[in-house]
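Can anyone check this?
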Amino acid sequence: MDEERAFKPMLRSGTRFTRDAAQRPVLMFEDVFKSYRAGSPVLRGMNLIIERGEFVFITGPSGSGKSTLLRLLYRSERVDDGRILFMGRDVARLRDDSVPFLRRNIGVVFQDFKLVSSWTVFENVAITLEVIGVAPRLIKTRVGEALERVGLTGRGGDLAGVLSGGEQQRVAVARAIVGEPALVLADEPTGNLDPQLAIDVLGLFEEIHEQGTTVLFATHDRTLLDQRPRRVIVLDEGKAIDVPTGVATAEDSPYDNELPL
């Protein structure tokens, strides 16, 4: 099996990794172009580096490319030009049968939860491990741990469809982290929640980050950006504008007049 086919970084605590890979940024976008209509690219030669262990907000106006950027990362879509390197590997060059290995290392949380309402909470979380052949006994343990981390201890037998929106999003977060991925992507995860629930969900992602996981959190909600002095990447006109100290302190930023918020 060649190197691209066997893509499986598994760079997390307690697992094997190469010294060379550990010294690389977790993500590098190099001159990335993506267009859905001729002559109107969403991303226009975008460059961006995300270091391992960072928590980064991705923001910008509707249509600026936030969701596109994330879909390119987990290979739901391909770049038109340029490279996206995850742990040093070019995502676009991976063979189709290597994409599942990529996704084992990337947890994704969506705005609309993407749960199976007729399944139990346990089943919705366990599917992540079942598809990669984890033993049932270990699945039970890992799912229990993930549900405890998101505040749903003892709720594994409940049907997902009867949960509140905030609880469903917690299940979605548990599903994303149960495989202990190196990277978690959040695509507008609080878009369907009221303001207080949104802050609670943000707190879950911060706890995940404190465990050493790299987090990319895409949102248009300025109130969330003001919660913590995190690094903020603003997507505007196909480019990534870096606001390292966060939008809340962007008054002194040279990009102040360019923040499309």
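Reply from J.R.: I decoded it. The CA atoms of residues 42 and 243 lie 20 Å apart.
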